[in-house]
Write a structure and sequence with these properties.
The protein has 582 residues and is an alpha+beta fold. The protein folds into three domains: 2-129 and 263-427, 2-Layer Sandwich (Nucleotidyltransferase, domain 5); 157-235, 2-Layer Sandwich (Ribosomal Protein S8, Chain: A, domain 1); 440-535, RRM (RNA recognition motif) domain (Alpha-Beta Plaits). The chain has helices at residues 8-21, 46-57, 106-114, 119-125, 132-153, 168-186, 199-212, 239-261, 264-273, 283-294, 301-311, 318-322, 336-343, 372-392, 398-401, 451-457, 484-491, 502-509, 556-569, and strands at 2-3, 24-31, 62-73, 78-87, 191-193, 217-223, 229-235, 276-279, 315-317, 353-355, 414-416, 425-427, 440-444, 464-470, 473-478, 498-501, 540-541, 547-548.
Length: 582
């Protein structure tokens, strides 16, 4: 079901009921840009990875949110599905919340246009939203303003006690306002709208009202449809009437605030439900979900994990799940579309799925990849097929499989990290995987150096994988790990380069002092006069959009891990969720 601002309030109760009744739900986001893969290094730590994605999330917007709920009907042995496709765009609000600024990646926008994305619908009918902090500030401002207005009713003073001289260039405006008010008081009109003016002129009007009409009128500043702030004049009312009017005004403002909160209400329903949440390559979608609709992402990585786990205690990433046994050997590619194709055939089987209460839904033949609702739907189907495979492998019946999450425990709360070769997930519920990188070194060297210079330097110790950081630095990983100590001892000093361990480099980045290593025999080595072969940055994209690797220098194990990534990102556009972030 497509949901925009025009039908959001109508469908919201059904959305809440469907969330509360479902067995699990799956999500997917479409964004204004994904320009982040170039920044990821294959030897980033999870904390460094998070920091880069966090910066990316601050720049781009979620413009479509897919939410697909699956409810297992044990009596009929069938899953009932209801999928929503929300268009998301925050409207201009008022001075309580700053106007939103964001980036668009032109390749992303162009791709979505070719996929049939309706940007007119997005900008005209997109559902607004506020995160928790923005809502609290907005609500606090309304409450403070209401309190001040009610306190001023008794004295009928909305203005400052300071009297300021009226400048000559404002005298005519003030005189005209006085004349309009006097005419209004002689008429039967209910209220008078004064001419548009700036904040200084409004102050002069309030001051003049106190001097000439203190016991006759009240003034009220309102924001009209075009967002202009206009003064309205009304005859003086009793204290009770004034208080009632202020109360009504406050309630109207609160109602307007609820409209601005908008789609955030859906995320709060999900949080309150505590349901299992499924996503594919979920990391970026999770960060955007938190930052845009719930709580701004913290700078600290550990705080992020605590925040995410407290709001979503059960998350499963099908990208991570499909990369482990028993699925790794059965699924050649876990890009979302390829994953769905794989789990639609033997030895897998997608359980029976029907639309909830005959509601319209997606069909696998629709082919609407990159529409958030459809991608959320096929993510859910892929998960169901893998879940069923786990159960049937141990001869469990459907009612036992789908009524117990025990089979999923190894995969829950592990978020896949794209492009990392030896630390592929964030563990939201505990400590991250500890991996040995004793065979990885950090090097700096002249900008003239190429990959060939580095591979020749390390040639006595076997093949290496070079992961470039910039023009003058890189991480170098040995294939033969047992050669690490000898390589460090032999190559640790050179005239043309510097070299240190991965651990020492990370300590330096964190500002941690580490003891100096034991002295080693001083050996000066440099690589000069090498052929000027074009440097290949092995962990970045080349101009054609494909993943560029140096086959001569890459670690065979790492090559296996990256092979699928290379295939996936070279087929269409580098920003495509299912090809790069799939």
């Amino acid at each position: 079901m497509e949901v925009t601002a025009s039908n959001f309030k109508t469908v919201l109760p059904d959305v809440e009921k469907t969330i509360n009744d479902c067995t699990f739900l799956s999500v997917d986001c479409e964004l204004t840009g994904l320009d982040l893969v170039r920044n990821i290094n294959t030897f980033d730590t999870p904390g460094q990875y998070y920091g880069k994605l966090r910066s990316n999330c601050k720049e781009f917007l979620v413009i479509q949110y897919g939410l697909s709920m699956f409810r297992y009907d044990e009596e009929k042995d069938v899953f009932k599905n209801h999928t929503y496709n929300f268009y998301i765009f925050r409207r201009p609000i008022n001075r309580n919340v700053p106007d939103q600024r964001f980036l668009c990646q032109t390749s992303s926008i162009n791709f979505l246009i070719h996929e049939g994305f309706d940007f007119n619908k997005l900008f005209k009918e997109g559902i607004s939203y506020l995160n928790i902090v923005e809502e609290e500030i907005y609500r606090g401002n309304l409450e403070e303003a209401y309190k001040k207005r009610t306190e001023s009713i008794q004295s009928h003073q909305n203005e400052t006690n300071d009297i300021i001289p009226i400048p000559e260039d404002a005298r005519q405006f003030v005189d005209d306002v006085v004349q309009q008010i006097e005419t209004f008081l002689e008429s039967d009109e209910v209220e008078l709208q004064l001419p548009k003016c700036n904040s200084f002129l409004r102050r002069l009007v309030y001051q003049t009202k106190a001097e000439k009409f203190a016991d006759k009128i009240t003034l009220e500043t309102r924001q009209v449809e075009n967002k202009d702030r206009i003064l309205f004049v009304r005859r003086l009312r009793t204290r009770e009437e004034e208080e009632e009017i202020e109360k009504q005004k406050y309630e109207e403002q609160i109602g307007e605030l609820e409209d601005f909160v908008g789609f955030t209400k859906v995320l709060r329903m999900i949080v309150n439900s505590g349901k299992l949440i499924i996503g594919h390559n979920l990391c970026l979608d999770l960060l955007h979900t938190l930052d845009k609709f719930l709580n701004p992402l913290p700078d600290d990585y550990v705080e992020f994990k605590e925040l995410a786990h407290s709001l979503f205690p059960k998350i499963l990433d099908t990208k991570y799940m499909s990369s482990l046994e028993p699925f790794k050997e059965l699924i050649q590619s876990n890009v979302l579309k390829h994953l769905l194709d794989a789990v639609s055939e033997k030895p897998f089987e997608i359980p029976n799925v029907e639309f909830e209460q005959n509601q319209p839904g997606y069909n696998l033949n629709d082919g609407k990849e990159h529409e958030a609702g459809y991608d959320a739907y096929i993510t859910g189907l892929s998960f169901l097929s893998m879940w069923k495979y786990l159960g049937t492998s141990v001869s469990m019946k459907n009612e036992d499989i789908f009524c117990d999450f025990q089979l999923l425990r190894p995969y829950i709360n592990k978020i896949f990290l794209m492009l990392l070769v030896d630390n592929q997930y964030i563990n939201l519920a505990g400590k991250d995987l500890t991996v040995s990188r004793d065979h990885v070194f950090y090097m700096t060297f002249p900008k003239e150096w190429k990959t060939g210079n580095i591979t020749q330097l390390f040639s006595p110790f076997g093949k290496v994988y070079v992961s470039w950081l910039d023009e003058t630095s890189a991480y170098v990983s040995l294939y033969e790990r047992d050669q690490a100590a000898m390589a460090l001892s032999t190559l640790s000093q050179g005239e043309a380069y510097t070299m240190t361990t991965f651990a020492r480099r990370q300590a330096t980045l964190l500002g941690i002092k580490t003891p100096l290593p034991s002295p080693v025999p001083k050996k000066r080595r440099s690589v000069e006069g090498q052929p000027a072969a074009k440097r290949r940055k092995t962990d970045s994209f080349n101009s054609s959009g494909s993943f560029s690797t140096s086959k001569r220098s890459i670690d065979p194990i790492i090559e296996e891990e990256l092979a699928e990534t290379e295939e996936n990102v070279s087929s269409k556009k580098i920003f495509m969720e299912n090809d790069v972030w799939g």
